[in-house]
Amino acid sequence: MGPPLKLFKNQKYQELKQECIKDGRLFCDPTFLTENDSLFYNRLLPGKVVWKRPQSPNQEEQEVETDWGLLKGHTYTMTDIRKIRLGERLVQVFGTEKLYMVRLRNPLGRQEWSGPWSEISEEWQQLTAADRKNLGLVMSDDGEFWMSLEDFCRNFRELNVCRNVYNPILGQKELESVVGCWTVNDDPLMNRSGGCYNNQDTFLQNPQYIFTVPEDGHKVIMSLQQKDLRTYRRMGRPDNYIIGFELFKVEMNRKFRLHHLYIQERAGTSTYIDTRTVFLSKYLKKGNYVLIPTMFQHGRTSEFLLRIFSELPVQLRELTLDMPKMSCWNLARGYPKVVTQITVHSAEGLEKKYANENVNPYLVIKCGKEEVRSPIQKNTVHAIFDTQAIFYRRTTDIPIIVQVWNSRKFCDQFLGQVTLDADPSDCRDLKSLYLRKKGGPTAKVKQGHISFKIISSDDLTEF
User: Fold this and answer.
1) H or E stretch including 94?
2) Which residue has the higher pLDDT, 60 or 123?
3) In the predicted model, is pLDDT for residue 50 greater than 90?
4) Homologous superfamily of 328-457 in CATH?
5) Is the separation of the CB atoms in 454 and 341 below 8 Å?
6) How many C-beta atoms surround the C-beta of residue 174 within 10 A?
7) Phi, psi at 58, each rounded to 5°
8) Which of 88, 184, 307, 416 could form a disulfide with 446, with the two C-beta atoms 3.0–4.6 Å apart?
9) Hey, what CATH class is 77-155 in?
């Protein structure tokens, strides 16, 4: 048996493949750019390498008619696609039981396909008007024509899927947008061009935008569009930079920029590619999310348009501050000295008074007068929450209190709590504690326990 395979930059193919299948996106390797440095790591290049991808026909070939009547470099609209099962008579005519057909339209209303299944073709003439109607092979507009899926794939090289997601007249969707830019600054807290997720030291220096998903199972379509750079061709710039974005589920009360990723869940990643616009469509759970638009390489400048399409308002806004502002109010009450992050993973073995009682638990995480409430979990004594919160505290004498409640019709039931000092020197590993009655860490133990991770720091920009 040969030596074990060595993973390239620790990339696990099967995991990457499953992520792409789950997200419905193509794999784009961020570690293998179309640059000479990506080749011949251990020796010099044998000569000049020219990177190319299929291009549109040159100017002389634009709108030139092919042998089958299509126009080179021309855009056609796909208006229908059908999988057709043929009857016994037509099976004998065409020698197949199924047809895969595509209907296209020339927006100019002229110059149609003249190949198989066109109106002048042998295949089309073998069908009666009744056959065409029964099979759904109808055309409602001048310039429309049918062709087989095989011929479609042979004659077209690019397909753009358009989403009709926003109708301001009917009010069917919400659209929220912001215009931003990637800018360079020597100060890490002021720099806004940190590159993609691979640049771990600078990634979080990119612009950051937070939005709120109001309910579970909410579909959100995110779009990042870069500035049109074609006017800068004479200056040697590319038509498009490689762009993309990352999405993180964050604390329910986050108001300031992310500086390190300790407890945040990576909720989505767009494709990184050198196109004008990149999209990502996701069904998201209720909560707050931070979207970070990036160029692939750090240290570059450009402008962008970020848009979010959703069924309900998501309150898209930029995170600009790194920590609480110094103000007269803070001076009077005391400026925060400690920042604490907490993630409550689960509450298990909760109290149930009656065997047939429905327990609908939820969390209340408190620090002083500030509190965060989790969504309600239905009919379970083993609830998974993964609820995150962040607090800026004047002193560690102000504890973090995690309470578990049972949501009821008339009066909610207190199930227990834990009280945490959350000192910066405390262990940062996952912990589990029994619930107690109200009254502090020495109060009487109640049924059930919670699992959580809590981290504190006296550096207000650590999290």
Assistant:
1) helix 88-94
2) 123
3) no
4) C2 domain (2.60.40.150)
5) yes
6) 16
7) -70, 175
8) 416
9) alpha beta
**Residue among 380, 383, 387 at smallest CA distance from 286:** 387
Distance CA 307, CA 222 (A): 6
Give the pLDDT confidence score for residue 157 in this predicted structure: 82
- Distance (Å, rounded) from C-alpha 216 to C-alpha 417? 26
Cα 96 from chain centroid (whole Å): 42
Give the range among 317-321, 342-346, 422-426 with minimum mean pLDDT.
422-426
Asked if 421 and 313 touch (Cβ cutoff 8 Å), the reply is no
Long-range contacts of 131-134 (CB under 8 A, 24+ apart): 131/90
Quick check: 3 pLDDT over 80? no
Residue positions annotated with a catalytic role: 74, 106
Residue 61 clears pLDDT 70, i.e. is over it: no
Q: What pLDDT, on a 0 to 100 scale, did the predictor assign at position 188?
A: 94
Q: Looking at the DSSP assignment, which residues form a beta bridge with residue 144? A: 105
As a whole number of angstroms, the distance between CA 386 and CA 266 comes to 13
Q: How far apart are CA 112 and CA 88, in angstroms?
A: 30
Question: How many angstroms separate the Cα of 308 from the Cα of each of 25, 187, 209, 211, 440?
Answer: 18, 30, 11, 9, 44
Average pLDDT estimate for 422-444: 90
CB count within 10 Å of CB 447 equals 13
**Percent of the chain's residues with pLDDT above 70:** 81
Structural domain boundaries of the chain?
12-38, 77-155, 174-319, 328-457
Closest CA to 226 of 176, 170, 275, 163: 275
Confidence of residue 115 (pLDDT cuts 50, 70, 90): confident
Give the three-class secondary structure for 327: coil
CA 171 to chain centre: 24
Burial group, residue 209, by CB count within 10 angstroms (0-12, 13-18, 19+): buried
- Read off the tokens for 367: 């620090």
Q: Measure Cα distances from 26 to 20, 136, 148 in Å.
A: 6, 32, 25
Are residues 286 and 310 in contact, defined by beta-carbon separation less than 8 angstroms?
Answer: no
CA 205 to chain centre: 19
| d(C-alpha 76, C-alpha 74), whole Å | 7
- At residue 76, does pLDDT exceed 80? yes
**Separation CA 332–CA 422 (nearest Å):** 24
Asked if residues 445 and 436 have their Cβ atoms less than 8 Å apart, the reply is: yes
**CATH fold of 174-319, please?**
Jelly Rolls (2.60.120)
